[in-house]
Amino acid sequence: MQPRPALPLIAVGVTLVFWASAFVAIRHLGHDFSAGPLTLARQGVAALALGAFALRSGLPRPTAAQWRSLVVIGVLWFAVYHLALNQGEVWVDAGTASMLLQVSPVLVAVLAAMFLGERFTTPLVVGLLVAFAGVALIGLSGSGNDGVDSGKVVLGALLCLVSAVTYSVSLILQKPLVADLSAIHVTWLACVIGAVTCLPFAPALASEVAAAPASSLWWVVYLGVFPTAVAFTTYAYALQHMTASSLGVTTYLVPPITIVMALVLLGETPPTVAYVGGGLALIGVAIARRAPKRRVADAVEKEPTPA
């Protein structure tokens, strides 16, 4: 049965708001938690929060090929993505980090061209160059961190790009999964795999939890429940009913929401040059996604999981 037309859009809206808030929460928690322990805590809370709901509808039974995709998504998106983003936000502000992540639609197009047999089009190549020129400008902007040297700002920008790459790979892998498995099962299994991947950080997490103030612990719980358990599930649900290409466009709304939240809650904004770089990145994405790219969207929609 088809869902009401408004439900996928509501799911997208929930995802965007919670994901935008995650950039702010990660930035705030950087004073009390390092990247690895924060990732483990976030995925552990999310796995526990989702477990009760996921198991109410029975144990999921993925095929061997689906398990391979789930493991890759769990390691890349739910572990490496967050490790890179958490560390990257130590050196770049929340708004800048969210802008850097918006090169993901171009990367999705590149990966689809590489692994789904699509050719590189002129708009894709031009858009890729423009987008990464914007990314380079953001990396050189200083990113609103007066106390951080330029080398670490560039490294932080590169780590945000690592997050963008892992997100893009995972999106291509997840689309076929949610066609056969429920959104909540896919998200829960990926959270568990991500948490297991980060278990080596457990001793450090224990010591950082003991030293952290209660307010920071509640922020960690918020990160695990809302931007992870809820938002990743609503995103997977939306992906069931929208093309990956169309859904990717909606994430362009994350940076402005993040910038407003960061201004209100953290009192920080990206420097002017970073806005210029962010604008260039978005222009590059728009160029890359011109009409010839429609075939790539269809390929992501129809092709089996590249295992």
Topology of this structure?
Elements: H1 6-29, H2 35-56, H3 64-91, H4 94-100, H5 104-115, H6 122-139, H7 150-180, H8 183-197, H9 202-211, H10 214-241, H11 244-250, H12 254-265, H13 272-288, H14 294-302
Helix pairs in contact: 1-4, 1-10, 1-12, 2-3, 2-8, 2-9, 2-10, 3-7, 3-8, 4-7, 4-12, 5-6, 5-7, 6-7, 6-13, 7-10, 8-10
Beta-strand percentage range: under 5%
Runs with pLDDT <50, length 5+? 293-307
Q: Give a quick account of the main beta sheet: strands, pairing sense, barrel closure.
A: none
Terminus-to-terminus distance: 30 Å
Which sequence of SSEs, written as H and E, runs from N to C? Answer: HHHHHHHHHHHHHH
Tell me how many strands there are: 0
Shape: globular
What is the subunit arrangement here?
A: single chain
Number of helices: 14
Mean pLDDT: 82
Helix/strand/pairing class, anyone?
mainly alpha
Fraction of residues in helices?
A: over 70%
- Rounded to an integer, what's the Rg over CA atoms? 18 Å
Structure characteristics:
single chain; mainly alpha; globular
Describe this structure in words.
The chain has 307 residues and is mainly alpha-helical. The protein contains 14 helices and no strands. Helix 2 (35-56) runs antiparallel to helix 8 (183-197) and helix 7 crosses helix 10. The radius of gyration is 18 Å and the shape is globular. It starts with 5 loop residues before the first helix and ends in a 5-residue tail after the last helix. The model is unreliable at 293-307 (pLDDT under 50).
